[in-house]
Amino acid sequence: MVETLTGTNRSAGLSVQELIKYDTHEVPEYLSRESAMPPGPTRVPAEFYFSREHHEREMEQLWKHVWQMACHEDDLPNVGDYMPYEIGELSFLIVHTAEDEFKAFRNACLHRGRRLKERAGKKTHELRCPFHAWAWHLDGSIKEIPCQWDFPYVVKEEQNLPEVPVGRWGRFLFINPDPDCEPFEEFLDDFPDNFVLLPYEKRHKVAEVRKVIRANWKVAQDAFAESWHVFSTHPQVVWGFGDCNAQFDAFKNYSRQHNPAGAPSPHLEGIEWTPLPPSTDGVPRERHAFTGAIYERRPDGNVDVTMPDGRSGVFTQQAVWVEGELGHADLHLCQWVAGPQVEESLRMAVPEDLDPNNTGGKLEENGASPGENGSTPDGSELYAQIEDDRPPAPAEPQTRDERIRATAAVRAKAANDMREAMRPLLGDLMDKVSDTELTGNIYYNLFPNLMPSSSWGPLAIWFRFRPNGSNPEECIMEAICVAPTPEGTEPPPAPPVHELDVDDSWTLAPEIGGLAMVMDQDTGNMPWVQKGVHSLEGGALQLADYNEMKLRHFYAVLETYLEREW
Questions:
Q1: Are 475 and 217 in contact (CB under 8 A)?
Q2: What is the spatial distance between Cα 564 and Cα 414, in angstroms, rounded to a whole number?
Q3: Range 353-386 burial, b when 16+ CB lie within 10 A, else e
Q4: Helix residue ranges per DSSP H, 116-247
Q5: Which of 76, 116, 93 is nearest to 175 (CA)?
Q6: Over the stretch 288-322, which tens digit does the pLDDT of each residue have?
Q7: Does 510 sit behind a cis peptide bond, omega within 30 degrees of 0 on the bond before it?
Q8: Beta partners for 91?
Q9: pLDDT of residue 95
Q10: Considering the chain, what percentage of its residues have pLDDT values greater than 70?
C-alpha cells in the first residue's frame, strides 16, 4: 500500500535533481546543490516538549541569546510606530525611531517595571509609562522623571532604556537579547542567497494570522518541517505532491525542503485510483488515494464513506462510526469533507496541469445523485459510474526516464501558466525564473523558529512558532502573508494581526486562502502529539535520517545553544 523498503537510503520516487535536468529555464545554483546531513539516528527526549525545567533552560540558553524575527517593517511604517514582541515571559519594544531606523528596547519601565506598551501603537512622540509617567525619547534616551527630586540617588543620564541589537533582512526586523551576540550577518550566513531574483526587500506584508496551539512550540514547528506525513495527514493532495521524495538540505543555521510538485507520491506506486472530480452540486467529497473509498458530506454534517466493493458507513467529522457495515474511516478525510470549508475559489487542490492522473472531470456529466439524507442509494452503482471514467491504462509501463520527461513536461506547462499570470506584476523578470521555482514547494527553517517560503506566486506564507508565556505545553503559531511589491510603488501598511481563538478553524482567516483547510489537518494532530509524548515508551522520539533532516538539523543546532557557556 505504501512505499517501505527501496534498497537505498532514499525514496524510489522521482527526485528533484532528476526533474530539474529537464527544466525549460536555467535552474539557479542554490537549487542544484545538495547538502545532506550525515545519516545517523536522532533521539529527542520527550521531556523537551513538556518539562518546565527544560522550558526554563531554553529561555536562559536559547531565547536570551539567539537572533529571532520580531516583526516586519510594514508593521511600523511611520516614525513613532511601535510594537511589542514577546518570547516566553520576556517582552521587547520595537520602535520606528527615525527615517529608515528601528530600535528595540526591553519593554519595562526602569522605575517599577511596568510594561511600557502592551499593544502596538502609531505615531507616538515619546515612550511614556502609564503608571508614573516616566518618559523616554523615541531613541530610548531619558526625557523626563516626574518628581525627580525624590530620586536623589538616580543619575538621570544613566536612565536610558536598555537597547537590544536589531538586525534587518528582507524587511523583517530581528532582535537578539544578548548585547554580545554574533553579528546578524554571520548568523544568516548565505541564507539570503536563496532569494536573489526576487528578494524579500521587494515584497510587503499583507496579513498575519495568530493562534494559540495546545502543544509545545517544537511540536508545532516539527509538524511543518517534514513532508512525509502528507500521505497520511493530507491524502487529498498526494496525486501531485512528491512527499517522501522531497530533497532536504542542511546548512549553518537553516535547512531547506523542496517537494517536486507534479510528481505523484511514491506511495501511489501500483495504485490505480484517480482523483475524484468535484460533485455537480458542490457537496464536498474526496476519494481516498490508497483505499479508493469515496468520502462525501451529508446534509446532517456527517460523512458517507463508500468502499470500492460497495460497503459503506456513516461517520462523524471526527471519524466516529454512526451506522453501516463499514466500521472504520480516515480521520483526516472525514475532517476534510465535513469540517469547516473555504470558498471554492480558495480551495487548496492539485491544479489540473500538475495532476498527471487527471480524469478530465467527466464525472460532472454523470455524477451520482444523493439519496435520502444525502446518502448514495447504492455504493457499487456510484463506483461503477466513476470507474467508467477512468482513463485506459497505458499499453506498456513507462520507463523511469519516460516518467521523468512526462512529469517535467507537466511542470513546464504549469510553470509557463504561472509566468504569464505573474508577468503583469513582475514583468520580464518572470523569464528568468525556472520551472522548479514556480512549481516546487520550497520551504526553509531559519533557526530557531521561522519558516520562510520562496514562493513566486501572488502570496508567500511564512510560519513562526513561539512559546506561549511560561506554559511549555502551549505555543503561539503565526501565518505571515507576504506579496510582491509592484515596481515603483510604496508598500502599504500591514493590517492588524488577525487573532483566532484556540478552538477556531483556520478557515476563519480568508487571508491564508485554501491552505487553511490543510492547516486545520496539521494543527489537529498537535494536541494529540502533546498528550502522547507524556506516555512515550523509552521517553524519546526517533527521527528519520533523511525525511526528518530538518528536524535533526534543528535539534543539533539547539544542542549547541543548550550546552554553550554564555
A1: yes
A2: 48
A3: bbbbbbbeeebeeebbebeeebbbeebeebbeeb
A4: 184-188, 217-223, 230-233
A5: 93
A6: 999 999 999 999 999 999 999 999 999 999 999 99
A7: no
A8: 86
A9: 98
A10: 91
The C-alpha atoms of residue 284 and residue 290 are separated, in whole angstroms, by 19
The beta strand positions in 357-497, using DSSP E, are 441-446, 450-451, 460-468, 471-484
| Region 501-523 average pLDDT | 96
At which residue does the C-alpha cell 498526494 appear?
238
Residue 517 scores a pLDDT above 80: yes
558/62 Cα distance (integer angstroms): 8
Residue 395 burial (CB count, 10 A)? 5
Length of the chain, please? 566
Mean pLDDT of 428-432: 96
Q: Read off the pLDDT of each residue in 88-104 and give the average, rounded to a whole number.
A: 97
| Angle made by CA atoms 53, 56, 59, in degrees to the nearest 5 | 155
Q: Which strand ranges, in their side-by-side order, compose the sheet holding 127-128?
A: 127-128, 135-136, 142-144
Residue 388 CB partners (closer than 8 Å, separation 6+): 366
Q: CA triplet 163, 164, 168: central angle to 5 degrees?
A: 120
Q: What share of the chain is helix, strand, coil (3-state, %, to 5)?
A: 30, 25, 45
Q: How far apart are CA 201 and CA 199, in angstroms?
A: 5
- Angle at CA 68, nearest 5°, toward 563 and 494? 165
CA separation for the pair 539, 541 (Å, rounded): 7
At 483, give phi and psi (nearest 5°). -125, 155
Neighbour tally for 424: CB within 10 Å: 9
What pLDDT is stored for residue 242 in this prediction? 87
Neighbours of 111 (CB within 10 A): 16
DSSP string, 384-433: HHHHTTSPPPPSSPPPHHHHHHHHHHHHHHHHHHHHHHHHHHHGGGGGG-
* Contact yes or no for 238/268 (Cβ under 8 A): yes
Where does 202-290 show beta strands of DSSP type E?
Answer: 203-213, 247-250, 254-259, 285-287
Whether 175 and 92 have beta carbons less than 8 Å apart is answered as yes
Q: Is 344 left (phi over 0), alpha (psi -120 to 50) or beta?
A: alpha
**Whether this model's pTM surpasses 0.85:** yes
What radius of gyration, in Å, describes the C-alpha atoms of the chain?
A: 26
How many CA atoms within 13 Å lie on the side-chain side of 62? Answer: 22
Residue type present at position 103:
K
Write the pLDDT tens digit of every residue in 240-266: 888 999 999 999 999 999 998 888 899
User: Could you say which DSSP state residue 114 is in?
Assistant: -
Distance CA 460, CA 300 (A): 36
**Confidence class for position 352, pLDDT limits 50, 70, 90:** very low
How many other CB atoms are there within 10 angstroms of residue 287's CB atom? 23
Helix (H, G, I), strand (E, B) or coil at 250: strand
What DSSP string runs through 290-348?
TT--EEEE-TTS-EEEE-TTS-EEEE-TT--EEEES-----HHHHHHHHS----GGGB-
